[in-house]
Design goal:
The protein is an all-beta fold. It is 1% helix and 37% strand. The chain has one helix and 57 strands. The strands form 15 sheets. Strands 12, 14, 17, 18, 20, 21 and 22 form a seven-stranded mixed beta sheet that branches. It is rod-shaped.
Length: 703
């Protein structure tokens, strides 16, 4: 008598239930075990007894009324009804091990193969192979149940057990599948070979695992005597990645604002080069996709294509920064983008399932590939410059005496009057450059994204000399701002602007040298909304002639001047010259301005008040060394006339000259009955009187 595992094949043409006892083992046969397809039809059952051997007992018996036969085993079936069997006994070989591989592994009798990437949340299956003791072929006679587990095999620190192909550190069971039963006939039909069994039902794992192996154990219950781990490992990857780009403010990372603004105006913007947040979340393929909380991969940027400004944008550099992992969400709060504008990006994880990179798994985003990919490209934007920088483009030069004429008269131009408006011979120009945080040019800040207008330019003139203040009443208009279509622009002051020093009408001052500087700054205030602000230049560009002030083309001296008319008398029969000169305050007194070769007047600027009929005034050209020419016409009779020069608006007290203004207020003086240096000059011209005893009204010699 042996206590062994036995497989009984019983012929039972009548069907029904057979209960019997033999060798201290009880077998129960039920109708479901009846195999009518076999020849002959039979029952097949398994009994697990004490002992280490496996036996098959087969026999064909005939129905008998006797209770037993010497050559068989009596099996009771109802009241004193027996089936008698002729018994033969055959010993099976114990499996030498197991392996697992994909169902497509060829040939059918393969003893090893690859397990390719599987998708979390999507059903899959595979084959398990029972190997002979030498592990050189399938054990085609092996039948019975085995235990099948999916193991997390990412920890390879344990020693490899050569007999089982397992490591002790592969201890975490991802799943324990329903017991699988090897059946020679069924396995042949399903896999093409006995000893190769297809796992059923299919397996679905909803989480992600980057390194998985299959472990098969026999027997299915109790202490395993034969164990085998799959020689190939595989990944169960997320089905897809969902990527989002966010920030907290336009220069800080966070998750409160979506950076998905694809418009050229309004909406959320982020400063180029400032940190923002990228989150990549793995999802399974379940009907309602769930986060694969085990996912801990590293998404990488695969494509980046700028879309704004259009056309002509250039791709910037996207630097994801350092990733962290929490619950299947991969996050970086140190991402940065170098350019302005909008771009489309795709992120893929090509390394999470890299264990399958060499086993025939496709290196792509298909369901058969080991890449983890998003459904579509992600629009990201809008990015704006972090700041502006300004540099001098053109070194300016003022016009001395507010004219470009090289020589107004003999002596040229050497000075300008205090209060006289002046402007540029060479206009200053500055280049404004849009920069990211690192200082690189954001070349996409152009076209529809260029937002710097003339009103965004600040021009500040400073007087660095000892002297009067600048005259703020003169015109300083809006400059011209030109988009250079490369992230830079050109700022040029208006050609109609004027500068000048304030003229104190109460106290003249001594000559001084001008030292003027101009500071120009730029900003973009179009994004100044919540959590955003004004993009400004880091500092103003300064035009100051290297510290000595903006240069003048013919001298930077300024003088406090006046125009003086002197009384004149002479014959009514001749034209009468009126002494006329420009003077300046030298610090002590007014003296002739011998450097003035530029002042000029026209007839309309001269006013004449007289009873003499037909008097006219004719000024000469530009003054020479401060002396001008003004001649009255002949008089029709003896008498006098009051002559004045209209230099500008008349004060409340003092001379009132009725003529066309010469717009030379900077040459007004303190003339009676005035009280300040704001009066037009005037003089008396007398016809037909002697100057002195030795002088003649008219002298003529005839020869």
């Amino acid at each position: 008598t042996k206590s062994v595992n036995r497989y009984w094949t019983l012929t039972n043409p009548a069907g029904g239930t057979i209960a019997y006892t033999t060798y201290s083992a009880t077998f129960t046969f039920v109708a479901a075990d009846y195999d009518v397809g076999a020849t002959p039809a039979n029952f097949e059952v398994e009994a697990s007894l004490a002992g280490g051997a496996t036996w098959i007992i087969t026999g064909i018996g005939t129905r008998s009324a006797t209770t037993t036969q010497a050559t068989g085993i009596g099996v009771p079936n109802g009241a004193n009804t027996y089936y008698d069997f002729a018994v033969a006994e055959k010993k099976l070989t114990t499996p030498g091990g197991f392996d697992s591989y994909d169902t497509t592994t060829a040939p059918a009798t393969a003893i090893t193969g690859n397990l390719r990437t599987k998708i979390s949340g999507s059903a899959f299956t595979f084959d398990i192979a029972a190997l002979n003791l030498a592990k050189t072929a399938l054990l085609t006679t092996f039948v019975g149940p085995v235990k099948v587990e999916l193991l997390d095999s990412s920890d390879n620190s344990g020693a490899l057990n050569v007999a089982t192909a397992c490591r002790s550190t592969w201890a975490v069971a991802i799943q324990t599948l329903a017991n699988q039963t090897f059946n020679a006939a069924d396995d042949l039909a399903n896999t093409g070979a006995s000893g190769r069994h297809r796992v059923t039902p299919t397996v679905t794992e909803n989480n992600a695992w980057k390194d998985v192996r299959v472990r098969v154990s026999f027997p299915a219950t109790g202490t395993a005597t034969v164990v085998g781990c799959s020689t190939d490992n595989f990944a169960i990857r997320p089905n897809s990645l969902t990527v989002s780009v966010t920030d907290a403010t336009w220069q800080t990372a966070g998750i409160t604002r979506a950076l998905s603004n694809v418009g050229a105006t309004s909406g959320n913007v982020h400063k180029a080069g400032q940190p923002f947040t990228i989150r990549a979340t793995g999802y399974n393929a379940a009907g309602t996709p769930a986060i694969t909380s085990n996912y801990n991969g590293t998404p990488t940027l695969q494509t980046l294509s700028c879309t704004l400004p259009s056309p002509g944008c250039v791709n910037g550099t996207l630097m994801p920064g350092v990733w962290s992992v929490s619950g299947g969400v991969i996050t970086t709060t140190t991402a940065r983008y170098s350019e302005a504008g909008v771009f489309n990006a795709t992120f893929e994880d090509r390394t999470y399932a890299v264990v399958d990179s060499g086993d025939g798994t496709l290196a792509d985003c298909t369901t058969a590939g080991y890449y983890i990919c998003p459904a579509a490209a992600l629009p990201v934007g809008r990015f704006v410059p972090n700041h502006f920088e300004m540099v001098i483009l053109t070194v300016p030069q003022f016009q001395t005496f507010n004219t470009t004429t090289a020589s107004c008269s003999a002596g040229g131009r050497l000075f300008t009057y205090i209060g006289q408006p002046f402007w540029y011979q060479i206009s200053p120009q500055a280049t404004v450059t849009a920069r990211n945080l690192a200082g690189a040019t954001t070349t996409n800040y152009k076209g529809t994204l260029w937002k710097i207008a003339a009103t965004d330019i600040t021009q500040t003139y400073s007087n660095n000399a000892v002297g009067p203040a600048l005259d703020t009443s003169l015109l300083i208009g809006s400059p011209t701002v030109t988009d250079n279509s490369n992230g830079t622009g050109t700022v040029t002051p208006s050609a109609t602007d004027k500068l000048g020093y304030q003229r104190d009408n109460t106290t003249p001052i001594a000559p001084f040298s001008a030292n003027l500087s101009l500071a120009v700054s730029a900003q973009d205030a179009s994004e100044n909304v919540a959590n955003q602000g004004i993009i400004s230049s880091t500092s103003a560009v300064i035009f100051n002639g290297a510290g000595t002030g903006i240069a003048f083309d013919a001298g930077n001296t300024f003088r406090y001047g006046r125009l003086k008319l002197s009384n004149a008398h002479g014959s009514e029969l001749l034209r009468l010259p009126i002494p006329l000169q420009t003077q300046y305050w030298d610090g002590i007194e007014f003296v002739t301005n011998t450097a003035d070769n530029c002042t000029s007047l026209v007839s309309a600027n001269i006013g004449i008040s007289t009873s003499l009929a037909g008097l006219t005034a004719t000024p000469g050209g530009a003054f020479v060394s401060g002396v001008g020419s003004l001649t009255l016409s002949k008089s029709s009779a003896r008498g006098f006339a009051t002559v004045c020069v209209d230099l500008g608006a008349d004060p409340g007290v003092g001379t009132t000259c009725t003529a066309t203004s010469a717009s030379r207020s900077y040459l007004k003086g303190l003339w009676a009955p005035g009280t300040n240096y704001d009066n037009d000059p005037e003089a008396r011209a007398t016809y037909g009187v002697y100057k002195g005893a030795n002088e003649f009204i008219y002298l003529r010699e005839n020869y």
